[in-house]
Amino acid sequence: MDTETDCIQRHPGLPEACGLTTAEAAAIMAASVGATGTHVGSDAEEYDDSHNANLPDWKRRCIRLYGDCQTKDWIRKKRCFACFEDCTGQHEWPLDQCRPKGGR
């Protein structure tokens, strides 16, 4: 486990204690869930993001798609985190920049 993930887990709900914004911490944790194998499948129903229940649906979707982008074989024109940042700004994932192979 990397130091950012470790810090986030030691300070739940306080991402600023790790020098991160809430969105950055959520994205890191979403990616770590996928990397550790606890993210089962690509369907939203299978991904347990109940820890993000206080976030708006669009942000939960951005976090889930960021994790998928990081851990699955996606077609990317730019880094997954750049797509995540676009998503948090536009409230919609930029499928023209980061998308699953074979469409959605």
Structural description of this entry:
This protein has helices spanning 3-10, 22-35, 57-71, 80-90; strands spanning 74-76, 98-100. The chain is mostly helical and 104 residues long. It has one domain (3-100). Strands 1-2 form a two-stranded antiparallel ribbon. The longest helix is centred in the middle third of the chain and has 15 residues, at 57-71. It is globular.
Summarize the model shown:
The chain is 46% helix and 6% strand.
Distinctive features:
two-stranded antiparallel sheet, 4 helices, 6% strand, 104 residues, single chain, mainly alpha
Q: Write down the Rg.
A: 13 Å
Number of strands: 2
The best one-word shape is globular
Structural class comes to mainly alpha
Which ranges are low-confidence, i.e. pLDDT below 50, for 5 or more consecutive residues?
39-45
Strand order of the largest sheet: 1-2
The total tally of domains equals 1
N→C terminal distance: 30 Å
Query: Strand-residue fraction?
Result: 5-15%
Helix content: 40-55%
